[in-house]
Write a structure and sequence with these properties.
With 113 residues, this protein is α+β, with helices and mostly antiparallel strands. It has one domain: GMP Synthetase, Chain A, domain 3, CATH 3.30.300.70. Strand 3 and strand 4 form a beta hairpin.
């Protein structure tokens, strides 16, 4: 490190600021949530595809995208929500004002199947 910047030791070229400090707060929270919910979901044969903090209809939203070998319907989303919600609460992350949205692009209502 020279003058507060990081250098590639092999080329002695500047590569930017410390990469550990470039880690975005939302990215940190998404990774922490993924790590915490992946195994409990897998125990219920639910595949975790994505965790993303974003916005929908003007509301801060935590999107959790899931899949299953048997497909995803509303009841599986409810089941996943019941697994995910208490885990997220236990992580003590600063996301109390977020809405939890568990779903998949292929979610269908049970009576539509």
């Amino acid at each position: 490190m020279k003058n507060g910047l990081w250098y590639n030791p092999s080329s002695n070229k500047r590569v930017g600021k410390n990469p550990l400090f470039n880690y975005d707060k939302e990215e940190f929270m998404e990774d922490k949530i993924k790590e915490a919910i992946k195994e409990p979901l897998e125990k219920e044969d639910i595949i975790l595809l994505e965790v993303a903090l974003g916005e929908e209809d003007g509301e801060k939203t935590l999107f959790v995208k899931i899949d299953s070998l048997n497909g995803v319907d509303t009841s599986l989303c409810v089941k996943a929500t019941k697994i995910v919600n208490p885990i997220i609460d236990s992580l003590n992350l600063d996301i109390s004002d977020y809405i939890l949205d568990v779903g998949s692009k292929g979610v269908v209502e049970e009576n539509e199947q």
